Amino acid sequence: MMKALCGIAVALSFTLAAGAAQAQSRVDTIRQTGSITLGHPETSVPFAYLDGNQKPVGYTVEICEKIAGEIKAALGLPKLDIRYNPTTSATRIPLLANGTIDLECGNTTNNVERHKLVAFAPTTFVAQVVLMARKDGGVDVNDPASFRGKTIAAQAGGQTFKVISQINAKNNLGITVAGAKDTAEAFLMVETGRAAGTANDDGLAYGQVASSKDPSAFIIGTKSLEIAPYGIMEPKDDPEFKKLVDAAVLKLIKDGTVAALYDKYFNAPIPPRGINLKYPMSPALKKALANPTDSGDPADYQ
After folding, report:
1. pTM for this one?
2. Fewer Cβ in 10 A, N or C end of the chain?
3. Spatial separation of the C-alpha atoms in residues 63 and 217, rounded to whole Å
4. At 301, is the secondary structure helix, strand, or coil?
5. CA-to-CA distance for 254 and 205, rounded, in angstroms?
6. pLDDT digits (tens, 9 = 90+) for 73-91
7. Can you point out the beta strands (E) in the chain?
8. 257: helix, strand or coil
9. Is 150 helix (H, G, I), strand (E, B) or coil?
10. How many CA atoms lie within 13 A of 38 on its CB side?
11. Is the sign of the CA dihedral 128, 184, 280, 250 positive or negative?
12. Which residues does 165 contact at the CB level (< 8 Å), separation at least 6?
């Protein structure tokens, strides 16, 4: 009996501790530690990748660094250390949920399904899922049916993997959809002939092709398979932290900082090789920045 009561007490203590942990906002943690941890992919050019000194850089990384500056000012902190933690498509949500990272700063699609697990800041990029292939590959990057019986690589666990898998199943195309750990590996599979093409977001596709040894050897589709709004990922059920982060993003949108960072990373030479993606801002992103929203419904971006 005593043993059973002790077990109940221990279980209750764990439950209360878990409840207390859940009740604590990231705002409290940031105040206590004087630091914020940004999660980031390492090969998602130009959103989040490593420069020549192995430092995380990129469009979304810099937006997050600006957010940290706004949080520091809003909380009246004398100092706020920014820490970085690499993520992949498989680890980004668990690391956010368990508190390892406070924000995920990469290229994560804001969709309704993910709202069950995380929250998103107002949209700062609107991607379109497209196909990319070698020019001599004998396929039409604007026609998924031309890949019948071939292999298309996509980031495992990502939205693009889901999109091309659904198109494949719906049209019975017999495409092998191969999962890659990240966009760099997916591109490498095409470059080395292990896949006929990739399904990727257009911004990432332009970044991979521009970074390749021979950009002229590849072609990127113009047909959108799906609209994919990107938002900086926030922990779920932390309204105090979300309010703080969202206010920072809205300020950065309205004062032109986000637009300036877009030009820096999409229309100018970027480190480490000085490539220029020459990718003007899309009408969908202009609309999203003019009317900020954290909606995960693609229809709101059309």
Report:
1. 0.80
2. N
3. 32
4. helix
5. 28
6. 999 999 999 999 999 988 9
7. 35-40, 43-44, 48-50, 56-57, 81-86, 103-104, 118-120, 125-134, 151-155, 176-180, 197-201, 218-220, 226-230, 233-235
8. helix
9. coil
10. 28
11. positive
12. 154, 177
Q: Are 145 and 173 a contacting pair, CB within 8 Å?
A: yes
Q: How far is CA 37 from CA 40, 66, 77, 101, 132, in A?
A: 10, 13, 16, 5, 34
Distance CA(161)–CA(77), nearest Å, equals 42
Quote the tokens at residue 79: 């100092």
pLDDT, residue 285, reads: 95
Supply the pLDDT for residue 23: 61
The DSSP output letter for 270 is B
227 neighbors 288 (Cβ within 8 angstroms):
no
Residue 284 is encoded by which pair of tokens?
Answer: 């969908």
Residue given tokens 């909606």 in the structure block: 295
**Which candidate, 156, 56, 143, places its Cα nearest to that of 103?**
56
What's the start-to-end Cα distance of the chain, in Å? 64
How far is residue 93 from each of residues 39, 102, 265, measured CA to CA in Å? Answer: 10, 11, 25
Q: What share of the chain is helix, strand, coil (3-state, %, to 5)?
A: 45, 20, 35
What sign has the CA pseudo-torsion 225, 231, 235, 238? negative
H helices, E strands: number in the chain: 10, 14
- What angle separates helix 257-266 from helix 239-254, to the nearest 10 degrees? 70
Where the chain has pLDDT below 50, the residues are 1-21
The vertex-25 CA angle with 123 and 248, nearest 5°, equals 35
